[in-house]
Each structure stands twice: as C-alpha cells, then as structure tokens.
Write a structure and sequence with these properties.
The chain is an alpha+beta fold. It folds into two domains: 61 residues, Ribosomal protein L9, N-terminal domain (Ribosomal Protein L9, domain 1), CATH 3.40.5; 99 residues, Ribosomal Protein L9, domain 2 (Roll). The protein has a four-stranded mixed sheet with strand order 4-9-8-6. It has a three-stranded antiparallel sheet with strand order 2-1-3, covered by helices on one side. A two-stranded antiparallel sheet has the order 5-7. A hairpin with a 2-residue loop joins strand 8 and strand 9. The protein is elongated. One of its GO terms (molecular function) is structural constituent of ribosome. This is Large ribosomal subunit protein bL9. It holds the Pfam family Ribosomal_L9_N. It comes from Oricola cellulosilytica.
C-alpha cells in the first residue's frame, strides 16, 4: 500500500514522503494512529493544504518529548520484585510495568514508547531505551532487585545474581555429598580411630 507519512518513521521516511508499506502495517498501525494517509489524489491535496499545520504540530510534540527526555536521560528506576536465589524473577517486568512506574513518577510515557525487546526476567541493572518521539530517544536504567538494600548494592557494582554473591554460599560446595563418616565426633580425650589401632597393636606385641 502507498501511504503519505504524517511524521518521521524510522527506516521509512520523513513527513510528506510517499512510501510503499505492507497492507497490514498500514491498516493496523500507520493509518489508525494518524501517522500516515492513504496515498491518493484527495489525500495528497489534503496533505499539501494542511502541511504547515502538520509540521507545526510535529514540532510541538518533538519539543515536549525533548523536555521529558532531558529529565529522564540517565535516570535510574528501582523495581523491587520477588526472585529466586540465582536471580531469576518469579514473573517478569514488562513494558506496561515500566510505563506505569514512569507515569507514577510524573513522566508522560506510554508502554508503546518503551523499547523493550523481551520482558525482563532477572535481577540486575538493565538499560532501557525510551522512544518519546520519532526524533527523540533517551535511555534509563532499571535496577531490578529483591529489596531496596539489594538495589543499593547493585548500584554500587555488586553482582547479586547467585546465592554465593547474596549469602556467601558456595553453591558448588553445597552440591557435594556429605559423608558423616569423614567427620570425627569425639569427646575431648577420647581416642580417634588411628590412636585406637596403635594401642591395639602395642598390646599384641
């Protein structure tokens, strides 16, 4: 389908460009969200008549997005979630979760503006890209931890993605089989196995 872009679209073109896109992409995204018009004679005339207004609205949206980006750039958001000893979350952190957190902190960000390839499923520091406008992007850091204390430790550079890092437990050692016969549980002054054998040998001599 041929469409006329009403805003810059990455890898497609700028405002006013006429481009060919897949029908599904046009019908499900570009046309219903007001990012493009079908390329026909009537819409070409309409676009040229409204071009100045369209470009002015885009400039306003870009300016507003730039202000938010400036406030967000480099910001760290702490997210507390339940997770296992190895750092795997009991669930995940999604684009909706991130957008809700940012909105709760006073930033006008929708889930569609959070560029997250896959949900976050482990604790740690995660760099997230926020696309506030086709021409305005910024990055934040998501500090996902089991508690505020762990978040502070992670921010200081600690890796808390294993039981050893969190509790000082050597996971490999924990997997070794415990052999009770290898331990000596003797009261003070009692003879150990080797001493008993030596005494028996002396009596026989």
């Amino acid at each position: 389908m041929q469409v006329i872009l009403l805003e810059r679209i990455a890898r497609l073109g700028q405002i006013g460009d006429e481009v060919a896109v897949k029908d599904g992409f046009a019908r499900n995204y570009l046309l219903p969200t007001g990012r493009a018009l079908r390329a026909n004679a009537a819409n070409r005339t309409r676009f040229e008549a409204e071009r100045a207004q369209i470009e002015a609205r885009n400039a306003e949206r870009k300016s507003a997005a730039s202000e938010i980006a400036e406030r967000l750039n480099g910001k760290t958001i702490v997210v507390v979630r339940s997770a296992g000893e190895t750092g795997q979350l009991y669930g995940s952190v999604s684009t909706r979760d991130i957008a809700d957190i940012l909105t709760g902190e006073g930033f006008d960000v929708s889930r569609n503006q959070v560029d997250l390839k896959n949900p976050i499923k482990a604790i740690g520091l995660h760099e997230i890209e926020i696309v506030l406008h086709p021409e305005v992007e910024t990055k934040i850091t998501l500090n996902v931890a089991r508690s505020s204390d762990e978040a502070e430790r992670q921010a200081a550079g600690e890796d808390l993605s294993s039981a050893e890092a969190i509790y000082g437990v050597d996971e490999d050692a924990q997997l070794q089989t415990y052999d009770p016969e290898a331990e000596e549980f003797f009261e003070e002054g009692a003879s150990g196995p080797e001493k008993a054998d030596d005494e028996e040998a002396e009596e026989q001599a």
